[in-house]
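Annex B. Sample input.
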Amino acid sequence: MKKSWILIAMVVFFYAAGMAQRVDVAAVLGYPQTILYNGKIVTMDDPTFESKVGTIVQALAIRDGRIIYTGTNADVQALAGPQTKKIDLKGRMVLPSFTITHEHLNDWSFQEPRAFKHILPNDDKVVSRWLPGKPAKEQLAMLEGVIKEAVSKAKPGQWILISCTWGTKFEYARDMTDIFDKSVSKEWLDQLAPNNPLRVRDGFLGSVHNTKAIEAWRAADPTASEPKEGSNFSKSGKSFARPIDPMAMFHNDIPTLAKILNAEFEVWASYGMTSYGSGPYSLNNLRAYYYNEQQGVSKGRFGWAYQGPNWDFNTLAELATTRSKGDYVFLIGAFASSGGNCMSVPGKEEFKALAKTQTTSHGSWDTGGASFGNDENDPDRGCNMAPGKPGRQRVIDTVAAGLGGKGMHTGGDKDIDYFMDAIAEGAKIGNLTAAEVCEQRNAFDHALVRPQQYARMKQYCMMMSANNFLIWNEDGHPRMRHANAIARYYGTEYAAWTAPRKSFTDAGLMSSYEIDRPLPQLIWKFIWVGMTRINEEENKAYGPQERTDRIIQMKALTRWGSYYMHKEKEFGTLEAGKWADFIVIDRDFLTIPDDDIPNVKVLMTLLAGKPTHLTTEYGREIGMTPVGASTWPEPIPDGWSK
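Annex B, continued. Sample output.
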């Protein structure tokens, strides 16, 4: 494989030098294993911030998982050998597969049922139940009966996992977050399941655990500190479940956990995504991802952000030497601190009191960092990176050590100012050049940023992981900055600060993509949202001046996402020498009407030249065996998206 890669590099050199016509690719590399021809292959190789896709070719050739040649039908077909698999695209479009830069697939593996039930379809290991897609009150009215039925099937000591749903469009989210915390308690779960560890999720990440579940988690990880999300976990049982599910349920069974995470990759691949950036949130998750890579069975690429526990300079400096190394699992930076929601502008008076009283299953609006403007008694309330805060020092040390910040949640623009101050201080301490700071590609995720910050961001070559969901819907999460909520609490003129992709691009800054929700089926919808800025529930555009065309949205999903991951030389565009990570879609993304973009269907997704998703119909057409989540036989629980 290494020899093949060296030979590919030689071909790429000659190709880039304009001497491709003098290079016999097949003679140097051997025959391609697969060629695709007669298509509209959009390489996305344009390096500018303009609305240009770059080269469009008819065909490409693949060997050993990498693209070895792109060009005309005649040129590529001439490379084929007797064993080459030939796929006639019949005019269909090919795009690079998508990179999602803040996506918790290790969380969604335990929240949405498809991957979990595919690997564990019965109750032998974990008894799992998924509430149907109904309004929140109806789900919670059913909950006691569902728990009792699950307990009746469980063996003593066996884990029970119960998940409510926020709906396929998060239509039940606000009601569920309002009442879940008041309806489900550890004491109640102890009564219902005295002999089994039990976890109940609210439809997202908010969870309640009974005493047996807390004990199982402590036994699996005796040194673990209290989960960051939630308070008094050992007493209340309430927290985000992200570190607990993988550590406690699968602490002695990494292979099964690895299969579940791989299956979740397959679910997302069916909508076009193959690479993801996030914190692992549990050592077991990271072990499982590496287990899949070591076994040679990875179904996706995972760029992970370090989350501790050691934050000393030597540890961070050592980690910096390993950044981006690896094909399927690789370090991209450090999640040194979550940014707070503090803002540089004052909130409306009528909502300041509301912020102090509202409590949901995802935390209090006030203690969650939702500072509604400057507090005269504490001007930095809700700022996690203000001077003197622990998060700030971690960012300083991370930058000084050469690692850089990735995967970090941010909310308000004021804390992004403090984030940039910490970058500057870290660069000074580390005696870093401007180029060395730029190479870290420090990023803020979720994105609420004011225009006056762009110049400084460009100085540090910062990136923004922008979330179009926050334009499209409001799910009741108090620490997220949805565009309509910003308009309501601060003023309509500030709604454009949420995911401001157009002005960010115009400033010569790269943005990437995130959903940050278990909603992979809506990725094409969110492209449309970025183009229209429409909140569908209200049928209103928020921050319409931040609309972009489809090509800028696609650059964020492909080439800019790979740059965020420090992997722009490996994937993100369709060029000779890069991994053959791409999708075949059912219509021409570049020419269809705007309103048809949400209807795009992915027929096939390839990772390193191998299908991770292939529909039955398209498999029949091209003579290949269908694979992936669309072929799984397990029934999907009622009200959960297919």
